[in-house]
Amino acid sequence: MTQGRILVADDDSAIRTVLNQALSRSGYDVRLTSNAGTLWRWINEGDGDLVITDVVMPDENAFDLLPRIKRIRPDLPIVVMSAQNTFMTAIRASEKGAYEYLPKPFDLKELISIVGRALSEPRREQRVGDDDEGGENIPLVGRSPAMQDIYRVLARLMHTDLTVLISGESGTGKELVARALHDYGKRRNGPFVAINMAAIPRDLIESELFGHEKGSFTGAQTRSVGRFEQAESGTLFLDEIGDMPMDAQTRLLRVLQQGEYTTVGGRTPIKTDVRIVAATNKDLRQLIDQGLFREDLFFRLNVVPIRLPPLRERTEDIGDLVRHFFLQASREGLPAKQIDAAALEALRRYRWPGNIRELENLIRRLAALCPDEVINKEHIEAELERPFAEPLPEPAQESESLTVAVERHLAKYFSQFGDELPPAGLYQRILREIEQPLITAALAATRGNQIRAADLLGLNRNTLRKKIRDLEIQVYRGMR
């Protein structure tokens, strides 16, 4: 007895053969077709327990067929395959009601696993979207395996309100992912509000997030609306969450736990209905070990983690990104440019410390300043200031004492002023620079225990507390 009837539609005979063999070996009865018309007839007749179809068929696009299938057989799982491995393909597959999206080429073991899961679990509710592809304004670019994994995760998240934590180096596109989650998700009709924790003075963060009442502090002349209130029914994007002070972390945790907050100086709780998307370029687990980030807040934010790969891990996407940025530049009035193969190879060999933001800036600079229509290898090398568009490795540093390291730092510091002297007060500035990391390291080693840290440093406990206050060091007694 078979495990179910699988309907396969693909105009590539080789793919049909491979799928037929793999599915048959797994115990499924398989029917094959090369066109959408036959597939529709089978489904309309009630045949099949699951459908596997390519997007582009000779007679009809599968995205046009899926809504009709959903109207007559809403519980029929449909797995969509496509060689057009873009973010919008994954999103459209989800919007049209597909159970799963697989980019070509796909892994047969993964496909068999998806088929088994789809036939064994209760059918989840799918929302059928409209027919707007949003084609030219694709927010995310790239067809690399790393990006395909991200597209599939994002597609699954579009119809949820799950909290998302996006991690990645600076310039990898964390805000673009957050905006995509909003613009193509269930809260698209609400506001998208972004706040950068690293750009706000520490004493103003709570007021920025939650708002304040008139007279709640010096200078509060009127009531101010906070970002939570601004983002009501929409998405609140908390960028650089690792820079949030500990007291603000405590208030944010309370909001996530209770679903309400009070303004600074206010007494009446305010219910909130926002989706939280956070982002960081720091290792939050390391900050937890150092007593600088609350572990309980981390677990509240890290419901769905998404790691954005640095550009050096997805160099196969550089060609698509370059063409995308040149097209954007030409739409903004800059001269249209092309790039040759040698120039692209030079770009792929570069390490991109600034990631996609660095690449975008380079392309805009070339579009604006390069007199030639075709960008070649020489143009790239001149811009990147590397003979072969690859940075030189850092010279190996032998182990050195703290004294030698400080002397080297001071020599470099004094050289910046040439024949002049640095500003007065150097002694206190240097002591402050050394004190802060020293005390922070001692607190991290003692897990925030100030008595043990004072003993480790050889300081009086009250002296240590005063230094912690004066240096504005955040202390959190957390577990490693």
What can be said about this structure in brief?
With 480 residues, this protein is α/β, with parallel strands linked by helices. It contains 20 helices and 14 strands. β4, α4 (87-95) and β5 (100-103) form a beta-alpha-beta unit.
Q: What fold name goes in the CATH topology slot of the largest domain? A: Rossmann fold
Distance between the termini: 54 Å
- Total number of strands: 14
CATH class placement of the largest domain: Alpha Beta
Domain module count: 4
Largest sheet: 5 strands, parallel
Radius of gyration: 28 Å
- CATH superfamily membership of the largest domain, which one? P-loop containing nucleotide triphosphate hydrolases
Poorly predicted regions: 124-136, 386-398
Mean pLDDT: 84
Q: In percent terms, what proportion of residues is strand?
A: 5-15%
**Can you give the helix content as a percent range?**
40-55%
Shape: globular
